[in-house]
């Protein structure tokens, strides 16, 4: 992050705006809304600011800016149309370690002003780090349409009960779980319908009935998809925000991991060839232990947890230990990567069936049902086959597929790092080696690969 998003308490604090025009007026209005004591430095003021002066809402120094104007100031905004003055304000404020914002000049700022969705006491701020204020405003406009004004009343009512809830539950995690259930249930719907009194009565009843007992742990087995965060399911997103602990695999992209609740404990359980951070049995037992401690555990896996993800083994262990669990499917690499590569896995002119296999090498061999794989009119999708690509291609040729069979290998499909190499069973191993591909990759074998150039639609940035 270029800027740390924070909310400042400037109520009754001395703040300074340098400038007397329309832009300065908007900044003054914002500071007044936050309860600041505002002074303005400018030789002249526009009519709106003069009205604020006349009503004693702001103080006016009718002169050019001098560094002495910063005495006892906690925050300053430069909003003139003179670059030299704005830079002077920025340098003087920085020397005194006073937070400074210079309108439309992020390089001169120590803080920036976001676009704001005001549902006080609920405040939502959107910022592009000064790169595209228009984009931030457009996003703010979208948020305005999907966040009802009633959320202000929801936050206010919740604030009234905050201390009561804190006294009722001995542990912060129990309080958080209670609030999650309240805010995702009938209480919120009652407030949205304008039934605030009924909502408060309901909240009080729920609190009185809630028992201060140890939390029951649960495991969420969630598929994170092939790498692109946009391909997550709504349910996956919701559970990612609820979990106390996340146990994640190597194939979970950093962009997706960033969407997990920020204060959740993160445990890496990735597996690479000849390098397993945790053995599978250790992972199984870890999930059991964490759940028995009352944790809500997010087991986050790349792709779909039931397709070469060992999800079945994990929930088998949970079932033996009577641990509650739920499974959220994810878009498996086969369908996601193929779609982003413009390669349909089935097509009535080329392939009437599709089969998924893993291409792990063991003692330089791959133990697959080659006779079943090497059939015409069938698409073969091979997971984790980069290292064994020469063996895979050779065996498919030996068992009957023409050496000219179209073949593709895709690196980090669905992401901005997607890279596609196409060829044939005979040529692909050398082409892939020349391209210096790295895992994760997916291999697709079959006539459908011919459609790649015609149907390719996703073009990552170079």
Question: What's the helix and strand layout?
Answer:
Layout: E1 14-18, H1 22-33, E2 37-41, H2 47-54, E3 58-61, E4 75-78, H3 83-95, E5 100-102, E6 115-119, E7 122-126, H4 133-146, H5 151-168, H6 172-183, H7 186-192, H8 196-209, E8 218-223, H9 234-242, E9 245-248, H10 254-257, E10 265-268, E11 271-272, E12 275-276, H11 280-292, E13 296-301, H12 311-320, E14 325-328, H13 333-340, E15 353-358, H14 370-373, E16 378-383, H15 389-398, E17 406-411, E18 419-424, H16 428-434, E19 441-445, H17 452-455
Parallel strand pairs: 1-2, 1-4, 2-3, 4-5, 8-13, 8-14, 9-10, 9-13, 15-16
Antiparallel strand pairs: 6-7, 11-12, 16-19, 17-18, 17-19
Order of adjacent strands in the largest pleated sheet: 3-2-1-4-5
**How far apart are the termini?**
23 Å
Mean of pLDDT = 94
Strand element count: 19
Shape: globular
Beta percentage is 15-25%
Number of discrete helical segments: 17
Structural class: alpha/beta
Low-confidence stretches: none
Q: Would you write up a description of this structure?
A:
By secondary structure, the protein is of the alpha/beta class. The chain is built from 17 helices and 19 strands. The strands form 5 sheets. It has a 5-stranded parallel β-sheet, sandwiched between helices. Helix 5 runs antiparallel to helix 6, helix 7 packs antiparallel against helix 8 and helix 11 packs across helix 12.
């Amino acid at each position: 992050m270029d800027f740390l998003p924070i909310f400042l308490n400037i109520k009754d604090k001395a703040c300074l705006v340098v400038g007397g025009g329309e832009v300065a007026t908007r900044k003054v209005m914002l500071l007044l809304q936050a309860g600041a004591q505002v002074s303005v430095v400018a030789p002249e003021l526009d009519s709106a600011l003069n009205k604020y002066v006349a009503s004693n809402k702001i103080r006016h120094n009718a002169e050019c800016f001098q560094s002495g104007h910063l005495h006892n100031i906690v925050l300053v905004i430069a909003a003139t149309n003179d670059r030299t003055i704005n830079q002077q304000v920025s340098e003087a404020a920085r020397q005194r370690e006073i937070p400074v914002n210079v309108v439309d000049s992020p390089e001169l700022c120590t803080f920036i002003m976001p676009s704001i969705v005001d549902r006080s006491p609920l405040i939502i701020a959107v910022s592009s780090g000064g790169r595209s204020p228009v984009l931030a405003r457009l996003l703010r406009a979208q948020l305005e349409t999907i966040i009802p004004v009633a959320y202000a009343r929801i936050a206010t009512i919740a604030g009234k009960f905050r201390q009561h809830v804190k006294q009722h539950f001995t542990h912060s995690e129990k309080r958080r779980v209670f609030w999650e259930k309240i805010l995702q249930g009938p209480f919120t719907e009652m407030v949205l319908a304008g039934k605030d009194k009924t909502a408060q009565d309901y909240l009080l009843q729920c609190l009185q009935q809630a028992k201060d007992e140890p939390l029951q742990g649960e495991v969420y087995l969630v598929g994170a998809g092939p790498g692109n965060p946009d391909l997550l399911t709504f349910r996956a997103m919701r559970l990612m925000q609820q979990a106390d602990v996340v146990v994640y695999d190597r194939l979970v992209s950093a962009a997706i991991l960033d969407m997990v609740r920020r204060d959740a404990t993160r445990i890496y359980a990735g597996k690479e060839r000849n390098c397993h951070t945790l053995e599978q049995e250790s992972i199984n037992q870890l999930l059991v232990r964490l759940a028995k401690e009352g944790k809500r555990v997010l087991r986050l896996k790349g792709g779909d947890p039931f397709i070469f993800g060992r999800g079945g083994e994990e929930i088998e262990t949970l079932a033996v230990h009577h641990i509650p669990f739920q499974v959220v499917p994810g878009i498996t690499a086969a369908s996601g990567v193929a779609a982003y590569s413009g390669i349909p896995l089935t097509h009535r002119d080329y392939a009437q069936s599709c089969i998924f296999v893993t291409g792990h090498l063991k003692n330089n061999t791959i133990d697959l049902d080659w006779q079943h794989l090497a059939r015409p009119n069938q698409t073969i999708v091979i997971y984790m086959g980069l290292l064994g690509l020469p063996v895979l291609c050779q065996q498919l040729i030996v068992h009957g597929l023409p050496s000219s069979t179209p073949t593709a290998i895709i690196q980090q499909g669905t992401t901005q790092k997607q890279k596609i190499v196409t060829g044939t069973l005979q040529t692909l191993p050398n082409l892939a080696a020349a391209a210096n591909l790295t895992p994760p990759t997916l291999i697709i074998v079959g006539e459908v690969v011919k459609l790649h150039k015609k149907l390719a639609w996703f073009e990552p940035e170079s």
